[in-house]
Write a structure and sequence with these properties.
By secondary structure, the chain is an alpha+beta fold. Helices cover 42% and strands 16% of the residues. The protein folds into two domains: 1-254 and 326-417, no CATH class; 256-323, no CATH class.
Length: 494
């Protein structure tokens, strides 16, 4: 059986981070636009290198941002509720959703998705603090987790995140968690087990490791792949084609004028009486052509533009021009490579090319279909991870029923563009024609948040209470028709 001591776990987790460091660093470079240089001749000068830097067209942030901007958790539906609705406001505000608001995940959830989409996975740590139970994202570049079955297990048996890497004589610091305890880890090198030191700090309060993995895609071997790494080869191809276009545009896209039968004027330098070079015209007695490092005369630059006229004294001199080289084929090649990028990454072509004119609503819907399928897949995968986060938060908060709630679901915001009038008409038809309870459709109103929904529930309950009180008073108070009529004769007799 493998050694499961804290030091052995920390050593193995640091070794995983060391193994993946180069791969993740390369992905990070491409996301930030620091791409590999396109091919250049071995004798490339500074002008070529400048063109190579300008040739970088970074499409990676768009490939990450397009699905990430459609992922937004807007609420949580508890499976422990007896109604087919979200939990009641009193329970929600003091439980699951308060943990979400306390952790500021309305804004910080986006970084978790972008990290998972970029590197293939990211992590969320759920822990008890002085301010209550909070969750925060952890970078894949600094965090690793161990699973018995990395393809199917959602709970790691150990996880480690680096707080500060080693610098100079200072040791690196890290935090590690297993199923019961939190540990402080110090190390000098990720590859030196003898430099690793582990100190047990405290019980973290959960019944399992409090770190949750958010994986964009996991195969049956447990490997995670994001949207960036498979696209690096296509990104390099686009950069190479753009570089070739810039070179052609710089050197061959303009007409080249030439003159035959005459020599260009040479740059001259002044000589004094002793034969030394001087810059004082009064001391100059002679001149000679200026030579370059190889001993060849240096031609004088010719200042020529559309307003200048060329002439020569020798009648044998001929002037002419060479036509510009075509660049249309290179532009077409760039367009083709971008289309390949769109097809492989399931990104609508008009998102990359900006060509949206004269497209019908049906054509736009068809173009968005592949992207919507990919987003739905991410919502399913990330939703399972969020549900574990909510269960961990409930357990740390002392809510036993919610900690065992495996039927809860996160509610994703509907990011499809539609007018409020269209949505209201559709929801009204669902309620009237299909008999769906109106309160069950409140959450589907575009843009409604969890807090707004809870306020609606409270207001509805208040209205129901007022209505029930009015009904009770009506039943308890006899109406005028119920009072027996008495005649004047009966009154006199009385």
């Amino acid at each position: 059986m493998a050694d499961t001591s804290p030091k052995a776990l920390a050593t193995e987790l640091l070794a995983i981070l060391d193994r993946d460091e180069g791969r993740l660093a390369r992905i990070d470079r491409y996301v930030r636009g620091e791409h590999d240089d396109p091919y250049m001749p071995p004798q490339a000068d500074d002008e070529y290198k400048m063109l190579a830097k300008r040739a970088v067209s970074n499409w990676m942030p768009l490939l990450v941002g397009t699905p990430a901007q459609a992922l937004y958790v807007d609420g949580f539906r508890s499976g422990s509720s007896s109604e087919s609705e979200l939990p009641e406001p009193a329970a929600s505000k003091s439980g699951e959703w308060s943990h979400w608001q306390r952790s500021r995940l309305d804004a910080r959830q986006s970084a978790i998705y972008r990290g998972a989409l970029s590197f293939g996975h990211s992590f969320v740590l759920t822990e008890r603090t002085k301010k209550g139970v909070i969750s925060k994202g952890l970078s894949a570049k600094r965090t690793a987790a161990l699973y018995e079955d990395p393809a199917n297990d959602e709970t790691p048996y150990a996880a480690l995140t680096i707080v500060t890497p080693p610098k100079g004589k200072a040791k690196g610091k890290a935090r590690m968690w297993d199923g019961s305890f939190e540990y402080a880890v110090t190390y000098e090198s990720k590859t030196d087990p003898d430099s690793v030191s582990v100190t047990r700090l405290k019980r973290h309060g959960a019944s399992e490791c409090p770190v949750t993995r958010f994986a964009a895609s996991v195969d049956l071997e447990g490997r995670t792949v994001g949207v960036v790494e498979p696209m690096i080869a296509l990104q390099d191809r686009i950069n190479q084609t753009v570089f070739d276009l810039l070179v052609a545009q710089t050197y061959t896209s303009h007409e080249v004028r030439y003159a035959t039968g005459m020599a260009p004027p040479m740059q001259m330098e002044l000589l004094d009486a002793d034969g030394n070079v001087t810059t004082d015209p009064e001391k100059a007695v002679d001149s000679r052509p200026k030579l370059d490092g190889a001993g060849n005369p240096i031609p004088a630059p010719i200042n020529h533009n559309a307003r200048r006229f060329l002439f020569a004294e020798d009648p044998d001199v001929k002037f002419g021009s060479l036509p510009a080289g075509p660049v249309g084929s290179l532009i077409d090649s760039i367009d083709m490579s971008i289309r390949h990028l769109a097809a492989i990454s399931q990104t609508p072509p008009h998102h990359l090319l900006g060509q949206i004119a004269n497209l019908s609503a049906e054509a736009l819907l068809a173009a968005e279909t592949a992207l919507q399928r990919k987003i739905a897949e991410f919502q399913s995968i990330f939703g399972e991870s969020w549900e574990r986060v909510f269960r961990l938060a409930a357990e740390l908060d002392g809510n036993a029923s919610s900690a065992e709630d495996f039927h809860g679901e996160v509610q994703w915001r509907d990011m499809e563009s539609r007018s409020l009038a269209q949505a209201a008409d559709a929801l009204g038809k669902l309620a009237e024609q299909l008999g769906i309870p109106k309160r069950g459709l409140w959450k589907r109103v575009p843009g409604v948040t969890q807090t707004e929904y809870e306020d609606w529930v409270e207001m509805a309950e208040d209205e129901d209470s007022v209505g029930q009180l009015a009904s009770a008073l009506t039943r308890a108070t006899p109406s005028v028709s119920e009072v027996p009529a008495t005649s004047d004769a009966e009154v006199i007799a009385a």
